[in-house]
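Reviewer comment 2.1 asked that we show a complete input and output for one of the modelled complexes. We chose the zinc ion case, as it is the one discussed in the main text.
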Amino acid sequence: MKLVSYCPVCHYHYNPLEARVLDESEGAHLIFVRCGRCKSAIVALILNGSFGISSVGLVTDLDGDEIDKFRELSSITADDVIANYEFIRGGELERVVGL
Ligand SMILES: [Zn+2]
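Response of the prediction step:
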């Protein structure tokens, strides 16, 4: 829980009331916290499992609403990557943006 108590960038102590729960299900909570001092943000997944409470978090430049938006999109597949590669390689990107 240390990650969620302190800003990993400037070590400022978070106010727990500033944490926003983005999602929760079956003992797992996805939370978002923005540091009151340096304004950096973290998104963390807190799991309450059979081995106790654990958390994993990362610093993000997204805000809470953007995390909600991207969370609902489907994952990028290998086919998506190949299609984008071929799009760029085939010169379509230059045609679209007018280069
Ligand atoms: Zn901070």
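The longest strand covers residues 41-49. We note this here for comparison with the apo prediction described in Section 3.2.
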